[in-house]
Amino acid sequence: MSKQKGMQQRIKIWFIDDFEGNLRAWKRGFPPKIAQSCELRTFLRWNTLKNELERNRLPDILFLDYFLAETYGSDILHWMQQNLRELPVIVAHSSVPQANQKMLALGAHCALKKYRGEEISSPIQEHFHDLEDIKFLLKYKKIP
Q1: Is residue 95 part of a domain?
Q2: Are the beta carbons of 68 and 17 closer than 8 angstroms?
Q3: In terms of pLDDT, which residue wins out, 40 or 140?
Q4: Are the CB atoms for 122 and 91 separated by under 8 Å?
Q5: What is the CB neighbour count within 10 angstroms for residue 92?
């Protein structure tokens, strides 16, 4: 029997943002029990995330910023809809409410406001206290 069968797979939560400070704040926002139980991975560039997706390495949840250096979150969302068989739960995560609304209209499952310049992401701290909060978010995946 392989080790994988006996072990529960970690929930993969990824975040793409072109500002390193936002990536650090996002990771710091999760409490230790989530950080230790889940794979928290950040991407600074779309091409790095795209390479992972093209290799069929998918997150369970993707926090998607709208304004990126080389593209927009809406373009990434469109690419994913066209090229992936299965989508992760997409959380629109912009500091601009209209950007979150646009991504929701294009198919993001939910939105969470982001605040610029935070050392620790207060929206992440406010909404994610334990694994049950993460599992609740995964329920969006079941909704067509």
Answers
A1: yes
A2: yes
A3: 40
A4: no
A5: 28
Give all strands of the β-sheet with 11-16 in edge-to-edge order: 38-43, 11-16, 61-64, 89-92, 110-111
Res 142: pLDDT = 64
The CATH number for 39's domain is 3.40.50.2300
Residue 1 lies in a domain: no
Provide the phi-psi class of 121: left if phi over 0, else alpha when psi is between -120 and 50, else beta. Answer: beta
Q: Mean pLDDT in the chain?
A: 92
Let me know if residue 5 belongs to a domain: no
Rounded average pLDDT over 84-92: 96
Q: Which domain holds residue 73?
A: 19-138
Task: Work out how many domains the chain is built from and give that number.
Answer: 1
What's the pLDDT tens digit per position in 5-33? 445 689 999 999 999 999 999 999 999 99
Question: What is the C-alpha to C-alpha distance for residues 53 and 60, in angstroms, rounded to an integer?
Answer: 12
10 Å Cβ neighbour count for 79? 14
Categorise residue 22: left if φ over 0, alpha if ψ from -120 to 50, beta otherwise.
alpha
